[in-house]
Amino acid sequence: MTYLDNFDYDAMFGNDSGENERDQSLREYFVEVPEFRKFFNSANELGFVRARKGMGKSAMLKVLSLRQKEENPEDVVIFTTGNELMGMGDFTGKSQAYLENHWKQVICKRICVEIGRKINVALTDLEMSLVEAAELEGYKDLNILSALTERAGGMLQKALAAAGGAAILEASKKRGVNNPEQALKNFQAKGDRIVWVLVDDIDAKYVDDDDHQQRIGAFFSAMRSLAFGVSGLRLRASVRTDVWRNLRKMEDQDKLRQYVIDIAWRDDALRTIITRKILSYLKREQFPPALKWGEAQNYYDIFDQVFYGRFHWSKDNVEPFLPLKFLAGGRPRWMGQLAKLAGAKAGTKRISETNLYDAMPEFGQEKLSDIQKEHSHQFAQLDKLIQSFRGGKREYNRYQLLKLISEKFVEKIVDVPGINGYPYRDVEQLAEFLFEIDFLVAHRPGKTDFVTYNSDPELFSTEENRQNKLLWAVHSSYRNFLRIQ
After folding, report:
1. Cβ–Cβ contacts within 10 Å for residue 56, how many?
2. Whole domain around residue 294: which residue ranges?
3. What CA–CA distance (Å, rounded) separates 61 from 242?
């Protein structure tokens, strides 16, 4: 078989963040599973995607943005972030009622900013943030784009008639707009179009305190109120699973569940993502055989271009995808990161089993850093809890696990902080939390397969575990860095 020389693994596996990936690359490797249909359906006013970090939430929002712009070019599509929206308002130390109404105003202000961009006039200069909650109620039977452009037109006329009108007109001319009023009318004349507002990383700086609880909870309540309180809006947002679970102060959570989808990648979908990334790269490099290959028919040919032979795993020789998936916790972002690190060890050659395992110390360190950032709001002493396993065994039965945590962590910390918003009660809480964040995985003696929290969330509290019939292993990806044998 002919092989491509001189690989560029960074180019092959792309950007670690979906929102920063090149549009064409994202289109080529994105995999849409049936569970995503509700989120992508333009008939649905509201939708939230929930998943852990690195699972593809940002990529989903970006793909939705690209599709709507291509399929419905007259629609207004706004891709924004939680940080951008929070920077447009004052959300500190406010009541729940204030926060919900203020979120509505900020979202409408962001739409107004987009209207200004479309007509090349800075509508923010005209105090477009003054969209009162009372006025929003009047939009119920009026398309929101028509309502906001009508309001903008009235404010534009007043501004041009006032003393500062000449300055505004002159500023508009510099942007290439001779008549800002006419530009606005032309924009509005295109009919009652749909406005998409896609909000990524609303929980980027989430801390589990009352202020963040109220602020983020009010955001979701405001999204629901806006989606069904006015016409012509399609609202989507992403949220981390751990943050959603901790929003104990969100009154509307039970009403919002029907609009939430979860990302849970099956092996076939993960295989397709990696295969498409490799095949896309090979085609960009004009590798002759790849120009005729299909991702399904030539799966083994495509993988064999990058990974050298079969790898030893769980006392067996397996296709490279299996250890890559497990070591990366089944998260597409981490799989790409690990492949790139292993590629750096391989240089310009194919990735061997040795290259993959040589990358584990660096990958384990990065992954530990990631889970500490992701879950520290759930448990403030997570770093010290994890370090209590350093230099220890790779697996424990329940009794041994609880003994280690008690002696190496609890007795040294003394004042153990709360877990997931609840006061510390006993050592079992800590062990189950480590299972929840995939630091620990379970397996049954004599069996080679591992059980993760996502596949069986209740496993730790079962009678099987209480009778010490399960073994709890530190996830393989952390063992090398923590010097666990």
Report:
1. 23
2. 266-358
3. 19
* pLDDT, tens only, 170-229: 555 555 545 555 665 666 666 677 889 999 999 888 888 888 888 999 999 999 988 888
Helices 267-284 and 299-306 sit at what angle, rounded to 10 degrees? 70
- Residues in Cβ contact with 268 at an 8 Å cutoff, skipping those fewer than 6 apart: none
Question: How many domains does the chain contain in total?
Answer: 3
Q: What CATH code is carried by the domain that includes residue 92?
A: 3.40.50
Residue 113 lies in a domain: yes
Look up tokens 């800002």; give the residue: 180
Q: pLDDT (tens digit, 9 = 90+) per residue, 370-418?
A: 999 899 989 999 999 999 999 999 999 999 999 999 999 999 987 999 9
- What is the helix (H) or strand (E) element at residue 234, kind and residue range? strand 233-240
Number of other CB atoms surrounding residue 171 within 10 Å: 15
Closest to 226 (Cα-Cα) out of 211, 240, 238, 236:
236
Q: What average pLDDT does the segment 457-472 reach? A: 94
Same domain, 390 and 300: no
Is residue 213 classed as helix, strand or coil in its secondary structure? helix
The token pair at 334 is 């981490």
Of 46, 18, 55, 53, which is closest to residue 263 (Cα–Cα)? 55
Q: Among residues of the chain, what percentage have pLDDT more than 70? A: 85
Find the DSSP H helices in 139-240: 144-161, 165-174, 180-188, 210-229
DSSP letter assigned to residue 206: -
Report angle CA 133, 135, 137 to the nearest 5 degrees. 80
CB of 49 closer than 8 Å to CB of 241: no
